[in-house]
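FAQ

Q: What does a record look like?
A: Structure on top, sequence underneath. For example:
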C-alpha cells in the first residue's frame, strides 16, 4: 500500500506531465495559426567567433 508521500509524488508527476501536454497543444495551435511567430523563439543566429 502506498504511503501518503508516495501518492503525493505520483500526483505531482501527473500534474507536471499534464502541464507539458497543455503547453505542447498551445504551441501546436500557435504554430498552425502563425508559424513565423511560433518559430521565432528558435531562431538560430550565426555570429563569427572572435
Amino acid at each position: 500500500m502506498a504511503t501518503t508521500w508516495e501518492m503525493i509524488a505520483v500526483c505531482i508527476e501527473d500534474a507536471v506531465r499534464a502541464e507539458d501536454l497543455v503547453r505542447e497543444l498551445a504551441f501546436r495551435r500557435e504554430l498552425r495559426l502563425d508559424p513565423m511567430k511560433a518559430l521565432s523563439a528558435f531562431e538560430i543566429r550565426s555570429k563569427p567567433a572572435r
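Q: Is there anything notable about this one?
A: The chain has a mean pLDDT of 81.
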